[in-house]
Design brief:
about 100 residues; mainly alpha
C-alpha cells in the first residue's frame, strides 16, 4: 500500500536524519514509515542539493550545511565532555594538595 506524505513531513524526516543525525531505525519506529522511504527521500534531497550547487557553485548546498552542522554538534558535545572531565580532575587534585 502506497501512502502519500506531504512535502513538509518529508522535509521533517530528512532534517531528523541529516541535521540531527537520527538513525533510520529510530525514525521508522517513531513515525511508522518504511526504511526505503526515508532512504529515498534523503537521496532525492541530496540530488536536489547537488543540482543546486551545480547551478550556483559558489554557495554551499543545504545537505552539506546539515552534515557540517551535525559534525560540529558532535564535536562540541565531545569537547563539553572533555571539559567536564578536566573540571572533575582539577577538583580532585585541588583536594589532594590541601
Amino acid at each position: 500500500m502506497s501512502q502519500n506524505y506531504t512535502p513538509e513531513f518529508k522535509k521533517k524526516i530528512i532534517r531528523l536524519r541529516l541535521k540531527e543525525g537520527r538513525t533510520i531505525n529510530s525514525i521508522i519506529k517513531e513515525y511508522g514509515i518504511s526504511k526505503e522511504s526515508v532512504r529515498r527521500w534523503c537521496r532525492e534531497f541530496q540530488k536536489e542539493c547537488q543540482a543546486q550547487s551545480l547551478q550556483k557553485p559558489s554557495s554551499a548546498n543545504e545537505a552539506d550545511i546539515m552534515k557540517e552542522n551535525l559534525r560540529l554538534r558532535k564535536e562540541l558535545a565531545e569537547k563539553e565532555k572533555e571539559i567536564q572531565f578536566l573540571k572533575k580532575a582539577a577538583a580532585f587534585f585541588a583536594k589532594e594538595i590541601d
